[in-house]
Amino acid sequence: MRCSGGPVVGIQLALPVVLRDDVAVADALDSDRVRCEPFMKLSSWGFLVHIVVIEDNQSMAKGIAYVLRDEGHAVDLLHDGQQAEQFLRSDVSDVIILDINLPGLNGFEILKSLRARGDERPVILLSARSETRERVLGLDAGADDYLVKPFDMAELLARVRALSRRRVREPVYTEQIGSLTLDITSRQVKSGGETIEMPRRELALFEALLKARGRSLTKASILDQLYGTGMDVEEKVVEVHVSRLRKRLEPFGVGIRVQRGIGYTIVELD
Questions:
Q1: 3-state SS assignment for residue 18
Q2: What digits encode the pLDDT tens for the residues 221-263?
Q3: If DSSP codes are grouped into helix, strand and coil, which group holds residue 104?
Q4: DSSP 8-state secondary structure symbol assigned to residue 171
Q5: 141 Rama class: left (phi>0) / alpha (psi -120 to 50) / beta
Q6: Is the pLDDT of residue 34 over 80?
Q7: Which CATH architecture group holds 174-268?
Q8: CB count in 10 Å sphere of residue 30
Q9: Average pLDDT of 187-211?
Q10: Whose CA is closest to 61, among 90, 13, 11, 97?
Q11: Residue 15: its pLDDT value, please?
């Protein structure tokens, strides 16, 4: 991102951004006095990536989440190791950014638990320790990457991109409804062999509804999947996304039904 208004607490908020353990940086990011506009977009991705950031330093966590969300991705923030361990057992994120020194459970313990139950999601470990021994321990525990603090935000984005590309090369897993086929791995929607272009939020909503086929998704659940937990987004935004997606899907024999007070369900149209 590029922000007007000059340096903020001694750090110019333009990519590359170096994130340090500084509460003032996160406060500045939240300030209404800082006006930001897109500077670097991940146009080569073409889809929304759901990222979990587990970092007990809340100023650093906010800084990471700010930049990732500015790129259009959904971000969940967690600050406690024990809570993160429980959260990761049920969420469906794409990439995990995991600090080593956490209260409750440390990053190594969380990582080992992930791998022990067969969870192969990409994990980037964060640590203030740069010794070779620490890096080896992290990689041997099952991490896909290791980044030493303080780090350049552009480098973190590049590493997340690399891990996301790796997931695209995994075995193809598809879901079908109406005349549409969703490739879960590459997040492409096709009909009759032709790719159907969708904005990232609509694509993420379509995927969420399709995965929940046969049951309803609440507005709160949809917001969490589109924007990440803890984001201050009004539920009316869901209605806008649903309305646009419904119009896009109907020509292919797919509809979205609403049950007031319950949620949204994806269905095949007669």
A1: strand
A2: 888 888 876 667 888 899 999 999 999 999 999 999 998 888 9
A3: coil
A4: P
A5: alpha
A6: no
A7: Orthogonal Bundle (1.10)
A8: 10
A9: 88
A10: 97
A11: 40
- What tokens appear for 72 in the block? 């259009």
CA dihedral 250, 255, 258, 262 (to 10 degrees): -150
- Check: CB of residue 55 under 8 Å from CB of residue 111: no
Tell me where in the chain the CATH 3.40.50.2300 domain(s) lie: 2-168
CATH 1.10.10.10 in the chain: give the residue spans.
174-268
Q: What's the token pair of residue 96?
A: 């995990």
pLDDT in tens, 77-119: 999 999 999 899 877 788 999 999 999 999 999 999 999 888 8
Whether the model pTM is above 0.85: no
Is residue 182 within 8 A of residue 174, CB to CB? The reply is: yes
- Cα separation, 213 vs 26, in Å, equals 39
The DSSP symbol for 118 reads T
| Residues 61 and 19: beta-carbon distance below 8 Å | no
CATH of 2-168, one of 3.40.50.1000, 3.40.50.2300, 3.40.50.720, 3.30.365.10: 3.40.50.2300
State how far the Cα of 184 lies from the Cα of 187, in Å rounded to an integer. 5
Rounded to the nearest integer, the mean pLDDT of the chain is 79
Q: What would the pLDDT profile of 172-183 be if each residue is shown by its tens digit?
A: 578 899 999 998
Cβ 108 vs Cβ 128: under 8 Å: no
Strands (E) located in the chain: 2-4, 18-19, 35-37, 50-54, 74-78, 95-99, 123-127, 145-148, 151-152, 174-177, 180-183, 188-191, 194-196, 254-259, 263-268
Residue positions counted in the chain: 270
